[in-house]
Amino acid sequence: MTATTDPRPPQIGTPILADPRLARLLRRGTRVATDRDEKPLPLGRQLLMQALLLFITASVLFPIVWILSMSLDPRNLSRPDGLNLIPPGASLEAYAKVLAEPTGNPIDFLGLATNSLKIALGASVATVLLGVLAAYAFSRLRFRGREALMIAVLGVLMLPSVATIIPLFIFLNQFQIDLGEVSFNLRASILGITLAVISAQLPFAIWNLKGYLDTIPKDLEEAAAVDGANQNQIFRRVVLPLAIPALAVTGFLGFLGGWTEYLTVALFVGDSSDWTLSVALNSMVGQFARTTTWSHFAAFSILFALPVSVVFFIFQRYLIGGLAVGGVKG
User: Fold this and answer.
1) 81 φ, ψ (degrees, to nearest 5)
2) Domain containing residue 207
3) What tens digit of pLDDT does each residue of 175-188 get?
């Protein structure tokens, strides 16, 4: 009995998978590709990779777990007495003490967090808005002095942050704000500190966003222009939606920089009512903080790091996507 084949070619307009010969070939090719892609690693290499990943995970989590255990220790030790991951008589007393009276100054934890949040949100929003506008101009527009401005931005980015502290101090100290009954010096205010933080983070935001916008195909903008969109509509409806991962990364880094800023706040602010969490945390160490216990210091550290962790987990999908795409395309 001989096998016969159908010499008739598939009819025009018939779906590809409707032809049994093509369907068998597609299934066979898919099965071969799947078998090739899913080839398992040798057992020894799997065990080695898993052991390495477990070691890295333990190295990252161990300091966090130890700080957490120290914050739950009710013995008020002046220094750690050993490795106690589960302290005897664990309690939340240190957290209550830190929330009620974080420092010896008349400002509570909520006031410190509010000042830090003002700086972090102001720096994050301003760096993203100003950075994406400048980055889009550098990426898409051609104007006189473009190369010189880009070199200037890169030059400022290469400077250490401490190099601009004194010029900013002198510049902001010249402005006295008078708003009726409210009068303050710009340098010694939350607004002045926010402006200083923005000036330090803006060059990185411009350079980072410019590199990402360069990877967006110009064909999409040209197609939108053919459909009748003007430059502003192209920027708002085409470029910005595609740049969300990069905007999320830039905004998060701006928030992180504003939240953890210490040097600018410590040098510019004179009134303790304008202190931030970073300054208060630093006041718990050193020669003037010998009475600070490790449980209070650990509890304050965890509360200080908690908002940044929450922001990261909320925008994790955009942040990882922005970092991954930037690493592949950049």
Assistant:
1) -105, 5
2) 101-329
3) 888 887 778 888 98
Q: Return the CATH number at 189.
A: 1.10.3720.10
State how far the Cα of 214 lies from the Cα of 199, in Å rounded to an integer: 23
Rounded to 5°, the CA angle 207-209-215 comes to 110
Q: Name the region of 238 (left: φ>0; alpha: ψ -120 to 50; beta: rest).
A: alpha
Within 8 A by CB and 6+ apart from 119, the residues are 190, 193, 194, 197, 258, 259, 261, 265, 276
Residue 162: other Cβ atoms inside 10 A: 11
Residue 236 lies in a domain: yes
The dihedral over CA atoms of 36, 38, 44, 48, expressed in degrees to the nearest 10, equals 120
61 CB-contact burial (10 Å; exposed 0-12 / middle 13-18 / buried 19+): exposed
Asked whether the predicted pLDDT for residue 16 surpasses 50, the reply is no
Q: Kindly state whether residue 316 falls inside one of the protein's structural domains.
A: yes
Q: Which pTM was predicted? A: 0.77
Q: Band the pLDDT of 211: cuts 50, 70, 90.
A: confident
Give tens-digit pLDDT for 81-115.
Answer: 666 677 777 788 889 888 888 887 788 899 999 99
